[in-house]
Each structure stands twice: as structure tokens, then as C-alpha cells.
Design a protein that fits this description.
Length: 430
């Protein structure tokens, strides 16, 4: 009786008023904090390197891309029955268990490559800091990568609660410092991007379409917070009952508006303080925009502050994505062993997962592949498949989502999702 009472009271209260509860504010900030991470540190490079016109178009597309896609996923989660506990349950309910397992695999493939991206990023950030700010010779890359990743794994070994607490403590100071740095760069703004061609490389055959084609997956990656959408939707359904979809849409709108304004201000501030040639150099060096700013400007505050922010952001993002990647890997291994009649212990699974993550992260960090290349060809396109295309397909096929059919925003989400996914083919052919 107590449980039933606790579940129905908030929904009744919410259904009879238009108040903004404390829990709504917590979720609004939580969505914002989840999206604003290390991915933002690579967005200015990709957004500005194409010239002024692609940058302006991306600024216009940022809010509708982020809002309509995440609203679609939220609606998809809410379309499940009351027995559904997360997005995997909803997928299984609408499309069957086999598809549910496939979606679980895709989630792992969306998160795991990003973990590898951050393994490379944190190694390059520390290597750049040792070389440029400390004026010392960095240790061999394989050794540096191993020390850093073992250190991160040591934090992970303290347990999920410690990781989540550390991440939550880092989110908002990081955002505050990011905005402060954007303001601090204002005196360094130049007209270099206005003097350059509207589309960079136009004289070499680059078109506006080709520049935007590769920029869209990075936009998808930078603003993505799909892993938290399932928990968000279920929490609001418990609180608001039938009114959950309207309240979720309102919370998403406010959160995404804050997100786009602060991130794009940071992007424009970085781009205006550098030239397109400098941004191309940052991409070639395979470092975040903050590490490049620290090396570029003869300013002790930027030189010290920027690498520290980058290190904190990448650490936070690595820890968060490790949780998702390890859960996905453990689930996949467990399912594979159970199909063969074996039931592994939780301890053995955890050790196998930790070993796999350590070895692969260290190997990729040592090899140092292009970070933006990995985002363009792996992270962004797979996220787009789950975040953009799956909910839109469900709207067209699932009776419970029929009421959302026939609106222009659906076609926009379809288009952006297909563009992001097709970037894999474009990149390989290019």
C-alpha cells in the first residue's frame, strides 16, 4: 500500500498543476551536465576548421538536432508498458527479444569506441602538458599511456558509487570554468575567420556539403546524452503519470537551450581567437582545443588552466563511459557463455572485463589514431543510429507511437541521422 501511494501521489500532484518541481530542476541540470563533457573540447576544432559558413549553419542546427532527437528517444521509452524498466525492455516489447539483444550490442558499440577516444585524448593531453608547459621530455608513449590508464582503472576499482560521486562533483565546476575561459578569450578575438574563404578548402575541391557531412557526426557526439534518457523518462513517468511526455519535453527544451548557448559560445570564442590554419594544426596534433590554446597563447593563466580543464573533462568522460562500456561487455560475455550452458561468476566477469578494457585502451592510446577520425567514423554514426533513427522508425511502425506521426521534425531527425551514419561511407570513400 505504501509503495502504491508513493507512486501515485506525485503523478496526481503533477497532473493537476504546472509547477516546476525540485526534481525537474535536478534532472534539467543532470541532462545538461551529462552532455557537457570532453566531447565539447573537440567540437571547436571540427566546427571552425571548415570556415565561417559551415560554423554558422552548425550553430543554427545545434538546438533542433539535440532537442528533437532526444525528445524522440524519450517518447520511445515512455511508449513502453508500465512493466518496462529501461529502453532495452521497451525495444524487446515493441520489436522482440532478438532485436533487444541487437540494441544492447549497439549500445556497447556506441560507448566502447568513445572510451578508446578518451584513452588517446588523456595520453595526448598529459604528453602535451609535460612537453610544452613543464618543458620536459615526455616518457615513452606506451609507458605514459599505461600509467595513466592504470591510474584511471584504480579509481574505477573503488566502485560505482565513488565514480558517480567524483563525476557529479566535477561536472558543474567544469562548465563554470569553460564559460569563464570563453569570456577570457574575448580580448584575443580576431577577424581571421572572416578574412578566410566562407568554406575552407573550397579552392581544393571541398564543398559546403562535404564539410558539413563530416561535421554532423561530431555534433551528434558532442551533444549526446542518450545513456541517461532512459532513467530520465522512467523517473518522470513515476512522478507525472500521463503528463510525463509534456513535462519531459519542457525539461529537455530548457536543458538543451542552456546546453547549446553555452557550448556554442565556447566554440565561437575559441574559433574567433584562432585562425582556420591554427585549427587545422590542432587537428593534426590530435589534441583537444584546450591543449592547443595552452600551447598557442603566451599567457600563463591559459597555459596552466586549459590543460587542467582538459584533463578533468577527459577523466570524467572516461570514467562515465567505462561504466556503460563495462556493463555492455559483461552482458555480452555473460549471454554468450550462458548460450553454451555456462554460468560465470560475477567476480570472473569483472576481472575479464577490466583486463579487456585495460589492454585495448592501452593499445589504442599507444597507437594514437586520429581522435576526430574515430568520432566521425565510429562514435557519431552509431549514436545517430540509436538516438535519431530508432525512435523515428518506432514512430512510423509502433501503434503506441502513432500519435507522433506526420510532423516536420520527424523528417528532420531522419535526415540528420542518415547524414551522420553515411559519414562512415563518405569517410572511407574519401
Amino acid at each position: 500500500m505504501d509503495n502504491a501511494h508513493s507512486n501515485t501521489c506525485p503523478a496526481t500532484k503533477a497532473a493537476t498543476g504546472r509547477t516546476w518541481l525540485n526534481s525537474d530542476m535536478v534532472w534539467m541540470l543532470g541532462l545538461y551536465g551529462t552532455a557537457i563533457g570532453a566531447g565539447v573540447l573537440f567540437l571547436p576544432i571540427n566546427a571552425g576548421i571548415g570556415g565561417l559558413l559551415p560554423l554558422l549553419i552548425m550553430a543554427v542546427l545545434a538546438f533542433p538536432m539535440t532537442y528533437y532527437s532526444h525528445r524522440g528517444m524519450t517518447r520511445f521509452v515512455l511508449s513502453g508498458s508500465l512493466e518496462s524498466k529501461d529502453i532495452t525492455d521497451v525495444v524487446s516489447e515493441h520489436f522482440g527479444k532478438k532485436i533487444g539483444k541487437a540494441i544492447t550490442f549497439l549500445y556497447f558499440m556506441a560507448i566502447y569506441p568513445i572510451l578508446l577516444v578518451y584513452s588517446v585524448a588523456i595520453t595526448n593531453t598529459v604528453e602535451s602538458f609535460i612537453t610544452h608547459q613543464l618543458g620536459s621530455q615526455a616518457p615513452p608513449r606506451a609507458l605514459l599511456a599505461l600509467v595513466l590508464i592504470v591510474g584511471l582503472m584504480a579509481i574505477i576499482s573503488l566502485g560505482r558509487d565513488v565514480i558517480v560521486k567524483v563525476m557529479s562533483m566535477l561536472v558543474f565546476p567544469f562548465v563554470a570554468v569553460l564559460v569563464f575561459l570563453a569570456l577570457y578569450l574575448v580580448p584575443y578575438w580576431t577577424t581571421a575567420i572572416f578574412d578566410a574563404p566562407l568554406v575552407a578548402g573550397a579552392d581544393e575541391g571541398n564543398s559546403l556539403i562535404s564539410v558539413l557531412w563530416l561535421a554532423v557526426p561530431v555534433m551528434v557526439f558532442s551533444f549526446n546524452h542518450s545513456p541517461i534518457i532512459s532513467s530520465f523518462a522512467m523517473s518522470k513517468r513515476d512522478e507525472y503519470g500521463p503528463q510525463a511526455e509534456k513535462k519531459c519535453s519542457a525539461i529537455l527544451a530548457v536543458s538543451h537551450l542552456m546546453m547549446v548557448l553555452t557550448v556554442m559560445f565556447f566554440v565561437f570564442s575559441c574559433v574567433l581567437s584562432l585562425s582556420p590554419a591554427s585549427l587545422a594544426e590542432a587537428k593534426a596534433q590530435n589534441i583537444s582545443i584546450l591543449s592547443y590554446l595552452a600551447n598557442h597563447f603566451d599567457n600563463p593563466y591559459i597555459a596552466l588552466l586549459a590543460p587542467i580543464i582538459a584533463f578533468v573533462a577527459i577523466t570524467k568522460s572516461f570514467l562515465g563511459h567505462y561504466l556503460g562500456a563495462s556493463e555492455g561487455f559483461t552482458g555480452l560475455i555473460s549471454s554468450a557463455l550462458e548460450r553454451n550452458g555456462k554460468k560465470p561468476s560475477a567476480g570472473l566477469l569483472n576481472k575479464l572485463t577490466a583486463l579487456f578494457m585495460l589492454v585495448t585502451s592501452w593499445a589504442v592510446a599507444t597507437l594514437n589514431p586520429s581522435i576526430l577520425g574515430m568520432i566521425e567514423t565510429l562514435g557519431g554514426p552509431i549514436i545517430a543510429m540509436l538516438l535519431f533513427l530508432m525512435p523515428m522508425y518506432a514512430i512510423s511502425k509502433v501503434p503506441a507511437m502513432a500519435k507522433y506521426r506526420g510532423v516536420a521534425s520527424n523528417y528532420f531527425v531522419w535526415l540528420m541521422g542518415l547524414v551522420a551514419m553515411s559519414a562512415i561511407v563518405y569517410k572511407l570513400l574519401g
